[in-house]
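Give me the fold.
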Amino acid sequence: VQLVESGGGLVQPGGSLRLSCAASGFAFSTYVMSWYRQAPGKERELVAFINGVGTSTNYADSVKGRFTISRDNAKNTVYLQMNSLKPEDTAVYYCKAAYFTVYWGQGTQVTVSS
């Protein structure tokens, strides 16, 4: 089983990034996929999640209207489009797969700074 995040980096406030999480080794379309983030000195927090078929999503209040989670089950990949980024969005972003078992990726760093 693997979850591999990519797409992180350094971006200026107001900018955009698109994170990807490529999954392998399990029945991807049956799993709820989520993005979490953890800033230095803070607990890991849920950012967004999407159901297996991609028809239902939910977001943390802090990212509503700015972030969009989506998935492509043909590519076993979940995405997080992040727009209007703020310095407080700086964190390591993790993807998580959950059904009967939970899997985590290794994380990708997102830094929002001028």
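The chain has no helices and eleven strands.
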